[in-house]
Amino acid sequence: MASTSKLPSGAYRVQIRRKGRYASETFLRREDALKWARQAETLVDQGLPPNRLSISRLHTFGDLIDLHIADMCAVGKPPRRSKKATLATLKRNLGKDKVGHLDRHELIEYGRKRADQGAGPVTLGIDIGVIKMILTHAAAVHGLEISAEPVDLARVALKRLGLIGKGVERDRRPTTAELNRLFRCFDDNARLTMPMSRIVQFAIATALHLDEICRVDWNDLDIGRRMLVIRDRKDPRKKLVMIKGSLCLLRLGSTHGPWQWNKPCTLGPRKERFSRTIPDP
Fold it and tell me: For residue 160, how many C-alpha atoms fall within 13 Å in the half-sphere facing its CB?
């Protein structure tokens, strides 16, 4: 029997359960959802897979990316910033390619092109991994007859060519003189309202990612123990952070007025401001 529900986006998600088979699909119009449900139930009665209709509409790799995003959003796990950027890059570069054309040779050429554009070994490895994830998701969740073996072969080839590999560990810390130059540049900019100097000091004291810093809530700070709880951390096993350095410099001392850390922050302007302040080597 089919059931339909309206998603927060305004689209309609329809699900069928018939003779031990399950299938679901999302449509902009409720009439299309009900029509699909009737046709899918007919396929089940004929002994055919109910998602055959959905598969017939998937022609390009971009369609598979959209399908993966829709499925993840439907279960409350939308792509976050890094994954969303990777998916956007893949859709821009490979989105128009037919699903059957993504063979080993095509993926190797894509890797070479990305390397020529400046993508490093780690970035390219992430791209290849996400391509495999998209294909595997379509095969496992929707029954699409796609093999991820060409992706594995392409990864081996790109490793042999030196285009995929481990990143180089960065262990150099900025000197005191370099940090002071940054702080002077930030503090002397009267138009700058973001507390960039304190954000940099906070990053040094905690070794947190920028998005983690912008989500800090001072109610989670234990001043006596100098411990901070990061509720939504990239590594969920390490929610407790030891604060080093002077706490008063992190919360007070702004030359542009008070700053409430627990208000919503956007990451883009902070990253852009820091990048524009650092001169090219």
Answer: 7
CA 234 to chain centre: 12
The residue type at 212: E
227-229 vs 221-222, strand pairing mode: antiparallel
C-alpha 64/C-alpha 51 separation (Å) is: 14
CA separation for the pair 87, 90 (Å, rounded): 5
SS (H, E, C) 14-63: EEEEECCEEEEEEECCHHHHHHHHHHHHHHHHCCCCCCHHHHHCCCEHHH
Q: Which residues contact 141 (CB under 8 A, 6 or more apart)?
A: 71
Per-residue model confidence as pLDDT tens digits over 154-169: 999 999 999 998 877 7
C-alpha–C-alpha distance, residues 14 and 41, integer Å: 12
DSSP 281: -
Name all contacts of 178-181 with Cβ < 8 Å and 24+ positions apart.
179/204
Closest by CA position to 131, among listed 90, 85, 84: 90
Number of helical (H) and strand (E) elements in the chain, helices listed first: 12, 6
User: What pTM was estimated for this model as a whole?
Assistant: 0.57
User: In whole angstroms, how large is the CA radius of gyration of the chain?
Assistant: 25
10 Å CB burial of residue 160 (0-12, 13-18, 19+) is exposed
Rounded to the nearest 5 percent, the helix, strand and coil shares of the chain are 50, 10, 40
CA 83 to chain centre: 2
Residues 214, 220, 226, 232: is their CA dihedral positive or negative? negative
Given a contact cutoff of 8 angstroms between Cβ atoms, the answer to whether 251 and 218 are in contact is yes
Over the stretch 91-146, which tens digit does the pLDDT of each residue have? 999 999 988 788 999 999 999 999 999 889 999 999 999 999 999 998 888 777 78
